[in-house]
Amino acid sequence: MGDRETRCNAGGQFMDRGRMNQNGVVQPLLTDLYQITMAYAYWKSGKTDDHSVFDLFFRSNPFHGEFTIFAGLDECLRFLESFHYSESDIEYLRRTLPEGTENEFFDYLGDLTAKDVTLHAIDEGTVAFPRVPIIKVEGPLIIAQLLETTLLTLVNYASLMATNAARYRMVAGKHVNLLEFGLRRAQGPDGGLSASKYSYTGGFDGTSNVLAGKLFNIPVKGTHAHAYITSFSGIEELKARLLKHKLTAGVTGDLLELAIKYRQKLSTVLNVSMEESSEGELAAMVSYAIAFPDGFMALVDTYDVKSPAKSTNSNNITAKTVTKAVISKSNAKNLSDKRSTDINETKLPITTTSAGINMTNGWTVHPNGNIDNINNAVSTSTENDTNKNDQNMNNNNAQPHDSKYHACMSQLSQRSLSNLCKKTEKSFRSGLLNFCAVALALNDLGYQAVGIRIDSGDLAYLSCLARETFERVAERFKVQWFNKLTIVASNDINEETILSLNEQGHKIDCFGIGTHLVTCQRQPALGCVYKLVEINGQPRIKLSQDVEKVTMPGHKNAYRLYSSDGHALIDLLQKVSETPPEVGQKVLCRHPFQESKRAYVIPSRVEPLYKIYWQNGKITQKLPTLELVREKVQKSLKTLRNDHKRTLNPTPYKFAISQVSVSDNLYNFIHDLWLQNAPIGELS
């Protein structure tokens, strides 16, 4: 068994290589079969010494945005460092490749390494743009070809994930913490680990993933689940109630007794009935506080203890049904997403019948959401008028538009919204009352609670209610740190959710984000490609009827040109033989494919984008830690104007030309080669 397999088995999926750890599944066989069959065909054709250049790039920015964060370079370099087919790899390929594959080819593979490869790349954590190569690979054709799939899989998701995380960071703002909670929703264990690593790169502050914390030195955060709260049914289940005073030696307090005392006082202060408080929830919180007195953070939305009594009328229409009718018939806007989904059986103060909800203005809302005017049933109009009314108003598919209809809809919307607020508040008050009681009890023993987590309901409304409650408690009991308690919100949060919460003036200090972050639901793939652009010094171009898929041939350098205010203006591609652009000197920048799009740029700063990261079988640059890459992301984003980074309708990153420009020399080179390679049609 080879050295690589020994390390994999001993260390698990990720091999401990010191700095950021090498994923043990990243090995030469992590590739597509056609890479190996092409390698054999190259070998048979005598092309083992052909020198090639490949560009790795993407064609469009993800998430309808105007930037991408380049990530995954560290893993690419570790892959090159360990590239070698083991004995078991060779044996597997002997069984897998078609019969007749020559044995000498397997001997060739067994000796193959990446020592003759040179890899150029932009710095990891840098903002990147479409069509500008983020990695260039030079070297023997066979080995360069064999690297394709693995490099793509290492860069694609890493860059997509880092970009997604960076977007969340921008909409959340600098002063709100972001935690990645996505392991259970990720695409398998490796997807979960990569998501934790690259969400941290993109600007998140921590993860719930313990293994990612160990492997990548990412801060690990977490509280408890609803299961912990529901595992207690009463205070009699508490096995431990005593807690040593943090500051005073020899002093021990009964945390439960203190919490009950404070709960009674808080009941009056917060105007919450003791009947609304769950004994099991209090027991669970006391238990958790005893276990973690310096890190007490509680989930506070488990119980709805005091729900309104259910009516005996089996035909009652629920607020959920009414809300559905209101939305479907009057297009009511912004009736909080969570309010419309969390309510169950709140009854509205209106008359219900088997037909539906009867309003005093004569309209009826049916259980199926249809609406009609019940007064038509007793109309005294002529027969013709009655028939007309029956057609227009009693037809379930009709859309009435008179003032009575809109008054009905307005009344339903206001009443259902009001009842929803009351319902939501009641479902939250038990947890908030019990948390405050336990937190004050901890304070008596020298400890400070951390905060609460809200996992359901109207997050903006509940966070404001919680913050107001904490401020009232701080003032009433003279405990100033209560003002600074942390409010964490989770529950299927995405970019749009945070933007909406910002508009509503939420009081949330930290978001726990899972599914939408780690699965990149808005765009599941970045779409990086790996294209041959030069062979034995001769340029190669891929032609297509879709201009976006035409490659830019030859070995190229890339430069980022900056304006006098420090913002990036444009990325410029040149042939490697060209003189680099200079500060203060006029540079003609052209669209790669549209002749009329061109502009002169006088840069105030010129940044060469490429560095050689791998050459002669070793890494040639000092690689940054994950923390430094994370800082690089934020530094690079600051070079973009705010309108490039905004979520809605961002301004394209360009200077009257395109997201990438080419020099005049490269433009002419591309079009000459295009004409040389494009077939000439014939008419007869």
UniProtKB/TrEMBL annotation:
For this protein, the Enzyme Commission number is: 6.3.4.21
Give one GO molecular function term: glycosyltransferase activity
Give the GO biological process terms: NAD+ biosynthetic process via the salvage pathway
Keyword match Glycosyltransferase: yes
Q: The Nicotinate phosphoribosyltransferase N-terminal domain covers which part of the protein?
A: 29-156
Reactions catalysed, semicolon-separated, are: 5-phospho-alpha-D-ribose 1-diphosphate + nicotinate + ATP + H2O = nicotinate beta-D-ribonucleotide + ADP + phosphate + diphosphate
**Function as written in the Swiss-Prot or TrEMBL entry:** Catalyzes the first step in the biosynthesis of NAD from nicotinic acid, the ATP-dependent synthesis of beta-nicotinate D-ribonucleotide from nicotinate and 5-phospho-D-ribose 1-phosphate. Helps prevent cellular oxidative stress via its role in NAD biosynthesis.
Where is each Nicotinate/nicotinamide phosphoribosyltransferase domain found?
450-551
Q: Which top EC class is named for this enzyme in its record?
A: ligase
Keyword Transcription regulation (UniProt) = no
**Any one annotated GO CC term:** cytosol
Q: Which Pfam families match?
A: NAPRTase (PF04095), NAPRTase_C (PF17956), NAPRTase_N (PF17767)
Under which pathway is this protein filed?
Cofactor biosynthesis; NAD(+) biosynthesis; nicotinate D-ribonucleotide from nicotinate: step 1/1
Could you identify this protein by its name? Nicotinate phosphoribosyltransferase
Give the highest taxon in the source lineage. Answer: Eukaryota
Keyword line: Glycosyltransferase, Ligase, Phosphoprotein, Pyridine nucleotide biosynthesis, Transferase
Domain called Nicotinate phosphoribosyltransferase C-terminal: residue spans: 556-668
Upper taxonomic lineage = Eukaryota, Metazoa, Ecdysozoa, Arthropoda, Hexapoda
- Give the protein family: Belongs to the NAPRTase family.
Return the annotated region ranges for Disordered. 375-400
